[in-house]
Amino acid sequence: MFRIVGVNHYENTHSAILAELLNPKGTHGLKSKLLELFVVQMLTMETMKVFHCENATVKTEAPGNGRIDILIEDNAGRAIIIENKIYAEDQWEQLKRWRSL
C-alpha cells in the first residue's frame, strides 16, 4: 500500500500511521486493543502485566536526546520507544541516549 501511494520511503508517514493504530485514543475506535496486541507480541507477559495500555499516550517525533520516532508512555511513567528505520542506519549509541530519558 505504501509503495502504491508513493510514500514507502517516508519514515514520518509510517510513524504517523503506526502511532495512530497503537493510540488508545485513535480514530479506529478500538481503544487500547491494538496496543495490547502489540505489547503481547513484542514484550514479555511480565512486562504486559505492568504496562498500562488503556491510559497510554502515543507521540511521534518526541523530543529527547535526539528525536524518538514513536514514544508510548503509560500513566506510571513506563515507556515503549519505537525507532522506525527506513533506509537508515542506527545512530551512534542511540539506545544509550534514550535510556537516560
Give an overview in words.
There is one protein chain. The chain is α+β, with helices and mostly antiparallel strands. It contains four helices and three strands. The chain has a three-stranded antiparallel beta sheet with strand order 1-2-3, with helices on one face. The mean pLDDT is 84.
Helix fraction bin:
25-40%
Number of helices: 4
Uncertain ranges: none
| Main beta sheet | 3 strands, antiparallel
Number of beta-strand segments = 3
Q: Give, in order, the helices and strands.
A: HHHEEEH
| Helical/strand content category | alpha+beta
Strand order of the largest sheet: 1-2-3
**Tally of individual domains:** 1
Distance between the termini: 35 Å
How would you sum up the global shape?
globular
How much of the residues is beta strand, in percent? 15-25%
State mean pLDDT (0 to 100 scale): 84
* Computed CA radius of gyration, to the nearest angstrom: 14 Å
Summarize the structure.
The chain is of the alpha+beta class and 101 residues long. 34% of the residues lie in helices and 16% in strands.
Protein traits:
101 residues; alpha+beta; three-stranded antiparallel sheet
Topology record:
Blueprint: H1 11-22, H2 33-42, H3 45-50, E1 57-62, E2 68-73, E3 79-82, H4 94-99
Antiparallel strand pairs: 1-2, 2-3
